[in-house]
Structure formats: structure tokens, C-alpha cells
Amino acid sequence: MFATLLLQTPAGSGSLLSYLPIVGMAVVVYFFMIRPQQKRSADAKKFRAALGKGASVVTIGGLHGKVVDLSDETVTVEVDKGVRLRFDRSAIARETSLKTATPAA
Fold it and tell me: How far apart are the first and last CA of the chain?
């Protein structure tokens, strides 16, 4: 009889408080994981939409080049004189400032 009394849960507002940690964890996950990822995705989409000719870019594969032609879906990147490669816009990772390296003396 004593064991059955221990297994019974009290009725009332105590059951609502048991959901509070789960709700709190969901809020933390949203603000620290989901929301920042959505912001990064929106920023990347804006960047790719604003690409222009002459921009120095890096692809997701690490290939550096200069944008020479654009269409709605693709970007043509010149990686060397006369070497042009066509990529999807989603393959452009970031824009770089092209710096010429000077050899050390």
C-alpha cells in the first residue's frame, strides 16, 4: 500500500511546471542554433544575389577567381588568363579582396 502512494503523482498545477524545462530547452535551442543558421542563410542569399562582374570570389571548393559573367543560375569565374569555369551561384562561398603578392627579397 505504501508503494502505491509513492507512485501516484499529485494533481494540479504541479503538472504544468513539469513542462517548463522542456519549453525552456526549446527556446534555448531556437535562439542559439536555429535562428543564427537562418540569419546566415539569408545573408548568403543576399550576397549571391548582389554579385557583380569583376568581384574576386572564392568557391565552396576553395577555388579563387574573378567573376566575368553572370546569369540567373550560374556564375562564370576566370581563374587564370583564358581559363573560365562556370559555377552555380550557390557554389560561391564569399568575396575576397584580391591582393597581389610580392615575392620576398
Answer: 91
Model pLDDT for residues 24-42, shown as the tens digit of each residue: 999 999 999 999 999 999 9
How many helices (H) and strands (E) would you count in the chain? 4, 5
For cell 588568363, the residue is 81
Separation CA 16–CA 49 (nearest Å): 47
Per-residue model confidence (pLDDT) at position 102: 44
Burial class (CB in 10 A: 0-12, 13-18, 19+), 75: buried
Task: Give domain 52-98's CATH architecture.
Answer: Roll (2.30)
